[in-house]
Amino acid sequence: VVAPPAPAPAPVATPPSDNGTTTAARARVLAKPPVRKLAKDLGVDLAGVHASGPGGIVTREDVVAHAERSSVQKLTSYPDDEPWLAQGVVSPDGRQTRVPVRSVRKRTAEAMVASAFTAPHVTVLHTVDVTKTMKLVAALKEDRDFTDVKVTPLLVAAKAVLLAVKRHPQINASWDDAAQEIVYKHYVNLGIAAATPRGLVVPNIKDAHTLDLLGIAKALAGLTATARAGRTSVTDMSDGTITITNLGVFGIDTGTPILNPGESGILAFGAIRKQPWVHKGKVKPRWVTTLSFSFDHRLADGELGARFLSDVARVLEEPARGLVWS
Predict the structure, then answer these.
(1) Backbone angles phi, psi at 284, to 5 degrees
(2) How far apart are CA 144 and CA 166, in angstroms?
(3) Residue 201 CB neighbours (<10 A)
(4) In sequence order, what DSSP letters do the residues of 274-323 get, joined into one string?
(5) Is the pLDDT of residue 226 over 80?
(6) Annotated catalytic sites, by residue?
(7) What does the pLDDT read at residue 206?
(8) What is the pTM of this model?
(9) Domains defined along the chain, listed by start
(10) Nearest-CA neighbor of 36 among 69, 28, 16?
């Protein structure tokens, strides 16, 4: 009896490389032996490398560039690190996170663009000795009436702005383009620009012109706490008349801020630094800051803007002047 022939062995499949390419595919890649060795040392599959050499040959530079693109790169931040990235979509390479523009930041962006391209901005600057303001701040911190509130130079600046508005009420206005009218406000809703995790918000102290210094301090404290907690409402930010942005808290000397829509002016309060200053004919160390005031040139000419800023500076230079102007 003749035994039946043994079945033929099943063909063995050639295992693919790590990225799915076969050995034959790699062999078809044009590359010189040193380049192949470099690719092997760097763990680069030549089949996936873009060839820039003549005739489609892979060069040493091609291999190095591919290796750099494929390597894990250190990034500055990741979605789990920052709450403002939490709602975003990470790109496939992990190098970008796209976050939809929503809510406060969207409204702020739209308003700032509208303001920048609608109102003709003019900015004036003034450097002033605020040594007496710093002394006043130190004294108020020891005053029992101010025990429960935070006293900073911004408080004095806010009072200075209100006094300057009182002396130059025509600066407290808005331009109604639809009606072609200037709307003069007989009240001051003092805006305070605040940086929050949700973006820039500008809540305002309603009827700030009716408050004394302690009242302004309490209003500033409440406004700041609400903004930091992310609870600033649309009502809090509506109907502002003039604004202060405190750049000094970031160590910035000054800036040229964009008007809050519907307002005529915004004061940038810069960092206060001790520096040499001519005082009573002698060079002495004094506390000095730079103020800048941006205003709508449709509503105010250069003289009005300059006089307004000058009066703010005069109060900061000599706070006792506020007693005369109150």
Answers:
(1) -135, 155
(2) 29
(3) 24
(4) EEEEEETTEEEEEEEEEEEEEEETTT--HHHHHHHHHHHHHHHH-TTHHH
(5) yes
(6) 297
(7) 94
(8) 0.68
(9) 18-71 (4.10.320.10), 111-325 (3.30.559.10)
(10) 28
